[in-house]
Amino acid sequence: AQTVTQSQPEMSVQEAETVTLSCTYDTSESNYYLFWYKQPPSRQMILVIRQEAYKQQNATENRFSVNFQKAAKSFSLKISDSQLGDTAMYFCAIVGGSQGNLIFGKGTKLSVKP
Amino acid sequence: DAGVIQSPRHEVTEMGQEVTLRCKPISGHDYLFWYRQTMMRGLELLIYFNNNVPIDDSGMPEDRFSAKMPNASFSTLKIQPSEPRDSAVYFCASSPGLAGGRETQYFGPGTRLLVL
Questions:
Q1: Between β-strands B111-115 and B10-13, what pairing exists: parallel, antiparallel or unpaired?
Q2: Could you give the CA distance from residue A60 to residue B24 in angstroms, rounded to a whole number?
Q3: How far apart are CA B50 and CA A99, in angstroms?
């Protein structure tokens, strides 16, 4: 079974600063993929970034980047130059092997303060 | 593309009534997923389809829940009879193909269900 743990239920950051959200996972699969999804108050689930486990290089998408530590089974999300629009729930998720569905963590509520 | 479309966006019903949630996946996507989000259990899979065929329904809570995908562009999730503990946000998502998870799942806006 695959599991995802997000140990920070809530975080806050000042606008323009940098924040890192933590995620650890467990899987016995050798081929898996990790995702961060953002859920703003509108409830829409929006893909932020994804990482393929076999790739050494950390994924980046504009202000969003990950620190993927495969041996430690850690997948943290760094948001640089935080903006008010980044205020949302952030979910870490994994999919791998023959199982097609995403397994989600419980989420981290991020508040960006002006 | 219009993205994944779900209807209704909000549903309020009374216990014992039948509820039908609808989903139109992104055109060309082979996989369709139904997830449920609650405060207690978070986001969890209910069922998913590949080319209109149910692949994994192990997340369907009980026989009161059923899902169908009669064609590539339409799926329904039905609850009959509904109970207050079914109150949740129900998401539909689609992806072009599994390919070991390389394909991103795109989510609809969700249906917020309240059973009184």
A1: parallel
A2: 31
A3: 12
What pLDDT, on a 0 to 100 scale, did the predictor assign at position A54? 87
- Residue A81 distance to chain B (closest CA, Å): 26
Residues β-bridged to residue A79: A19, A64
As a whole-number percent, the residues of chain B with pLDDT over 70 amount to: 95
| DSSP classification of residue A30 | S
Partnered with residue B67 across adjacent β-strands are B77
Higher pLDDT, B59 or A100: B59
| Contact between residue A60 and residue A13 where contact means Cβ atoms under 8 Å apart | no
pLDDT tens-digit series, residues B73-107: 999 999 999 999 999 999 999 998 766 556 789 99
Is B114 at the interface with chain A, CB within 8 A? no
A58 exposure class (CB count in 10 Å sphere: 0-12, 13-18, 19+): middle
Which residues 25-44 of B have a C-beta within 8 angstroms of A? 31, 33, 35, 42-44
Say which of A44, A97, A99 has its CB closest to residue B107. Answer: A44
CA distance A112 to chain B (A): 22
Q: E strand or H helix at A89, and its extent?
A: strand A88-96
Are B108 and B91 a contacting pair, CB within 8 Å?
A: yes
